[in-house]
Write a structure and sequence with these properties.
By secondary structure, the chain is an alpha+beta fold. The protein is 29% helix and 19% strand. It has a single domain (6-129), classed as Phosphatase 2c, domain 1. It has helices at 6-23, 29-47, 126-129; strands at 59-65, 70-76, 82-84, 90-92, 111-114, 120-122. Helix 1 (6-23) packs antiparallel against helix 2 (29-47). Residues 3-137 form the PPM-type phosphatase domain.
Length: 139
């Protein structure tokens, strides 16, 4: 959610519930993000204009199959995950960014990867790397 405070916390709770419900439909990550985008747009419509502005959020959704070691991912404006290979090398994945949730009308793109056994996928919040004095455009 863009912002902080009670309104942001409530919005994130609603989005978390939506993700849990959509995940039971076994949707691919790009389709799930499209539905979640619709939820944010609907939330904005219901809220009308308010002093906090339009609700929006970034999201990365991934589905991992431990049998095949395949991982399908899509992101909505969120920073890409890092991969730590079994030999200790780390890299940021080059995933299509997609628009933040709430923009509407734009597509999300899923990528499927095969991850070797013992590979770690590192997910993180943008709050971990954001700094008001530094541009995070390096990601």
């Amino acid at each position: 959610m863009f912002g902080h405070g009670l309104r942001s916390a409530v919005t994130m709770g609603r989005l978390r519930t939506a993700v849990r419900n959509f995940s039971t439909l076994d949707l691919p990550p790009d389709d799930l993000l499209a539905r979640l985008d619709d939820v944010v747009i609907q939330m904005n419509t219901e809220a009308g204009t308010c002093e906090d502005g339009i609700a929006g959020a970034t999201c990365l959704y991934a589905i991992y199959d431990p049998v095949s070691h395949s991982c399908a991912m899509a992101r909505a404006g969120h920073f890409p995950p890092a991969i730590v290979h079994p030999d200790g090398r780390a890299e940021l994945l080059d995933l299509p960014a997609g628009p933040p949730l709430g923009v509407g009308g734009l597509r999300f793109e899923a990528v499927e990867l095969e991850l070797p056994e013992a590979t770690q996928v590192v997910l993180y919040t943008d709050g971990l790397i954001e700094d008001r004095r530094r541009d995070v455009g390096w990601v």
